[in-house]
Amino acid sequence: KARKEVILSASAVHTPKILMLSGIGPKEHLEEHGIEVKVDLPGVGSNLQDHTFLHLYFNAKNGSITQGEALSVRSLLNYYLRKRGTLTRTGLEGTASVRTR
Asked: Ranges for the Glucose-methanol-choline oxidoreductase N-terminal domain (predicted)?
């Protein structure tokens, strides 16, 4: 048994799974699966959200922003002196949420 608090961080899917297999979760759901209820905690396993990542590979036309341009002297000076330009962007230019069910 733990003597102090325990932090469980195993993703949006596996954290509730571990909790429920340990007897922590919605009482009715645990009993339905024959798991001894230690703590009735209805929110476990609900409203799951996870940060997914999808790699997309594509060919860019000439003149597109490339690593060479990003690391050019012009881009470096633009960033350091004016805090503008290519280097002020993150590596992620867009996101999408897709409903799977």
From this structure: 11-25
